[in-house]
Structures are given as structure tokens and as C-alpha cells.
Description:
Helices cover 39% and strands 19% of the residues.
Amino acid sequence: MGLDMYAYTTAEKVETDTDFFVEARTEIAYWHKFKFNALHGWMQNLYYSKGGKSDEFNCDNVRIDLDDLDDLEEVLKEGLLRPVDGFFFGSQTVEPEDVESAQEFIGKARAAIAEGLTVYYLAWR
Length: 125
């Protein structure tokens, strides 16, 4: 059992910040909860702060904009990203390679947004 975490882009027009559906998407990042559950916790907080309604935050989309990327970048820079407790949530540390993968995602996401694409996060367990 695990949690697969994805960041996608889409050219489709997305009108809301959460709980939307798209037909076509392109994966720009993948993480696994066992390795980087701290990022999932950050995305879950983002989802609820944007009005997400799901009780479990499972298979729910959250749109990521430039302000969100700035916030994530600052959290990474300051070392404030914290692991999440939970059943099968794996590692309780944030490793340097986790930070590097998030920074790589931020770069890809910024480039995609500059091209007019929508960037979003989706986790599935």
C-alpha cells in the first residue's frame, strides 16, 4: 500500500483551484509517499486553504500557481517542510534529494505556467 504523488500540466482551461477534471495531462513530477510524505502534507494544506472539500485528500486535484510555488520555495529554503504522520507514511525525515526533487519540480512548473499551462498536484492511494 502506498501513496503515489504526481504533478501534471494541462493546456485545458481550469476555472477552479480544486476538485476539477481534465481530459489531457502531462506528468512533470512523481514522488512516493514513503520517500517524501512531507510534500504531500504541504499540498494537502494548500488544497484545503484553496477551498478543497474532500475528507481524505485522495485523487483530488489542487491547482498550483506562481504564488504557491514561491511559498513552497521559501519553505524549502528555510527547511520548514515537515513530514506527515500516518499509516504507511514512511520516512519521517526530509532528505537533501527530496528538496532537490521539489526544486526541480518548481522549475518545471514555473516554465509550464510561463507557457500558459495549468499546473496541478494529484495524489492517489
